[in-house]
Write a structure and sequence with these properties.
2 domains; 0% strand; Helix Hairpins
Length: 321
């Protein structure tokens, strides 16, 4: 057994013991927090539906002119109680969302540390078998890292309002200053979102490239193996199992990635013009339909294109004074 191979085993054990324990613990914490938040949102949705039903009943009674003061008073008491419960649950939801964000950040740090260490080892390794094993670990951690990215939030500005703004047609200097500030802030926000999308897309590019490289290594190893071994681990057997690294993404990671994609499409659908017809929906809770990493990369590429076009529109409105 060579010294290099012993060092490799020691390194892998060190990574496994020092990071895997922490990562596993924080992953379970994130899954628990996401599950709790999902239950909270379902309860909130149910309460809001009940509140809307009471509002319709009161409006219906008023239109029919059959208002019973006692009945209306009882409904309003129910409405006030539901409203207080909704406010309480919304505060809990906000607190839990902050905890989820903090947990995602911790996981991202752990995954990044593991990836950096493995990439450094990869640069020092020349044996293909070792590179395959290292790449498998890098693939796992990179896919997991992408899955814990936060969902995209909606624009804080109104894209429809942007459409009707023309600095050349403002009535006075005050209106001009207000509209210019609105346009400038909108452009900053679009630029920030674009930067986030570009970073995520580049990480996906790296992940898929690593996946291709790992597959090439495996094919080269198969070519050099005895026929008996080759028949047991053929490339057709590998391609029949679409995994990312040595393990498939967990159910929670798949849903997280799908939620990111859905939030991005929700954001894009706010924009006027060509993106308004580019809608996408998927049954996130069905347990049956999931995006692939290639699908997600295509979504990010489309989003880059659309947002860059929208940024040009904002530039034109700001500079065409």
């Amino acid at each position: 057994m060579t010294r290099g191979f012993i060092s490799f085993i020691i390194f892998i054990l060190t990574i496994s013991l020092s990071l895997a324990g922490n990562i596993s613990q924080v992953e379970k914490q994130l899954e628990t927090e996401i599950f709790e938040h999902s239950l909270l949102q379902k309860k909130l949705d149910s309460l809001r539906i009940t509140l809307e039903r009471y509002a319709r009943q009161i409006e219906s009674e008023k239109k029919l002119g059959t208002v019973e003061e006692k009945k209306i008073r009882g409904w309003f008491e129910e409405i006030n109680g539901i409203s207080r419960e909704i406010n309480l649950l919304e505060k809990k939801s906000q607190t839990l969302q902050q905890k989820i964000l903090q947990t995602r950040t911790r996981l991202d740090t752990y995954y990044s540390e593991a990836i950096d260490s493995l990439q450094e080892l990869s640069r020092q390794t020349s044996e293909q078998q070792k590179l395959v094993e290292i790449n498998e670990l890098i693939l796992d951690y990179t896919a997991k890292r992408i899955s814990v990215l936060p969902a995209f939030t909606a624009f804080s500005f109104d894209p429809q309002k942007i459409t009707g703004i023309s600095l050349r047609e403002t009535r006075d200097s005050l209106e001009y200053a207000i509209y210019l500030d609105y346009l400038t802030n909108a452009r900053k926000e679009v630029k920030t979102i674009l930067h986030s999308i570009e970073i995520t897309r580049k990480e996906l590019d790296d992940l898929l490239w690593l996946q291709q490289r790992s597959n090439r290594f495996l094919e080269e190893l198969d070519e050099n193996r005895p026929m008996a071994l080759f028949s047991q681990t053929s490339s057709s057997d590998r391609t029949a199992q679409p995994t990312f690294g040595s393990n498939e993404l967990s159910e929670g990671e798949k849903i997280s990635m799908q939620t990111q994609t859905q939030s991005l499409f929700n954001l894009l659908n706010q924009l006027p013009g060509e993106t308004s017809n580019y809608s996408w929906t998927a049954p996130l809770d069905s347990g049956r339909v999931y995006l692939t990493l290639e699908d997600y990369r295509k979504t990010l590429q489309d989003a880059e294109k659309f947002l860059k076009n929208y940024q040009k529109l904002l530039d034109h409105k700001i500079n065409f004074k």
